[in-house]
TrEMBL record:
InterPro entries: 3-OHacyl-CoA_DH, 3-OHacyl-CoA_DH_CS, 3-OHacyl-CoA_DH_NAD-bd, 3HC_DH_C, 6-PGluconate_DH-like_C_sf, 6PGD_dom2, Mito_3-hydroxyacyl-CoA_DH, NAD(P)-bd_dom_sf
Compartment(s): Mitochondrion matrix
Family under the similarity heading: Belongs to the 3-hydroxyacyl-CoA dehydrogenase family.
Designated name of the protein: 3-hydroxyacyl-CoA dehydrogenase
Annotated organism of origin: Pseudolycoriella hygida
Alphabetized SUPFAM superfamilies for the sequence: 6-phosphogluconate dehydrogenase C-terminal domain-like, NAD(P)-binding Rossmann-fold domains
Length: 302
């Protein structure tokens, strides 16, 4: 993990204050890496219980990072965790925090209606220069941006789970994203230590366009009884060098999320065979088996 413990007074392209909306799996990781790099961060959740939960998860993750960075130095570990945590202010009132932010990164539920509600409610309250970005896995950035008056200052910043560990950041520009916005998003990404790639606003961008059909194909192998779950995963780890097998990875990403992505694409692109929905995946999700987060998916985590 590259770490930047800078205490900046000014940062990439004038971005100093970042608001992360949604403190779940992704939002808490995004808030953590931005704060670690010296940005002042506001993390927004829907209620104080969820906010506390997000802050707890950030602290746990920071402690993991600190243990490695400040080996055998308890005071150094504590100082690091405290300093970074202090740069993250929690809020349950997006409308008041948005008035003084340079970059908004949205990481709420993958639902276009709810994302539209959020962006249309903050567009007129945010300063004119503020850049809006979505961390969506599968939705169109242009479609999300369509409810705002700042389509030139709107793009995609797509992070990967676990955010503090995964080095990649996909930067998505729509036909309307301005050069200035693109450059600011890219230098923000670089300033937090991510390797940035650029992709057009296409379904799944680069990684998910390849990864989601791959995971779905692994479920089809299992559905047909061609191989066991363990053997499919072992095959891809030892035969293709992936850190996790496709079914383990689906459990890790969340079976609900994986199914939701496929379902959305299938509705939009019914002729694309790669986007076919899996009956087995659908069944597991209907039984509440979402993978690691619910304690059971293709494997048990209880
Ligand atoms: N916070 C901080 N550090 C963390 C962490 C976290 N949440 N999770 C893991 N780590 C650190 C560990 O401390 C450990 O550090 P060291 O090696 O320096 O000691 C390192 O990461 C590896 O962790 P583990 O030893 O616990 O386990 P591992 O070696 O099996 O690695 C993994 C775990 C990094 C998750 C690895 O299995 C992996 O890379 N898996 C694939 C993940 C992947 O493909 N993610 C992308 C999913 S797709 C997506 O995100 C996009 C989307 O839109 C759906
Ligand atoms: P999650 O369910 O873990 O977290 C979403 C959080 O957003 C929840 O805690 C929820 O309370 C909060 N939220 C919902 N509406 C809100 C609002 N109006 N204001 C403030 N907070 C609100 O989901 P996640 O896995 O973190 O995914 C978030 C986004 O990131 C989605 O668009 C998803 O597609 C994308 N994404 C997910 C992954 C992944 O591997 N899970 C990877 C990359 C991108």
């Amino acid at each position: 993990i590259r770490m930047f413990a800078r205490n900046m007074s000014s940062t990439a392209n004038g971005i100093k204050h970042v608001t992360v909306i949604g403190g779940g799996l992704m939002g808490s990781g995004i808030a953590q890496v931005a704060a670690t790099s010296g940005y002042n961060v506001t993390l927004v959740e829907v209620n104080s219980g969820l906010l506390e939960n997000a802050q707890k998860n950030i602290k746990k993750s920071l402690e993991r990072v600190a243990k490695k960075q400040f080996k055998d130095n308890d005071a150094g570990q504590k100082k690091f965790v405290d300093e970074v945590s202090q740069r993250i202010i929690g809020s349950v009132d997006v409308k008041s925090t948005i008035k003084s932010t340079d970059l908004v990164i949205e990481a709420i539920i993958e639902n276009i209606k709810i994302k539209h509600e959020l962006f249309s409610s903050i567009d007129s309250l945010a300063p004119a220069h503020t850049i809006f970005a979505s961390n969506t896995s599968s939705l169109s950035i242009a479609e999300i941006a369509s409810v705002t008056q700042r389509k030139d200052r709107f793009g995609g910043l797509h992070f990967f789970n676990p955010v503090p560990v995964m080095k990649l950041l996909e930067i998505i520009r729509t036909a309307d994203t301005s050069e200035q916005t693109y450059n600011a998003m890219k230098s923000f990404g670089e300033s937090i230590g991510k390797a940035c790639i650029t992709c057009k606003d296409t379904p799944g961008f680069v990684v998910n366009r390849l990864l989601v059909p791959y995971m779905a194909e692994a479920v089809r192998l299992l559905e047909r009884g061609d191989a066991s779950a363990r053997d499919i995963d072992t095959a891809m780890k030892l035969g293709a060098g992936y850190p996790m097998g496709p079914l383990e990875l689906a459990d890790y990403v969340g079976l609900d999320t994986t199914h939701h992505i496929l379902k959305g694409w299938n509705e939009k692109f019914p002729d694309e065979p790669l986007f076919k929905v899996n009956p087995m995946l659908e069944k597991l999700v209907s039984e509440g088996k979402y993978g690691v987060k619910s304690g059971e998916g293709f494997y048990s985590y209880k």
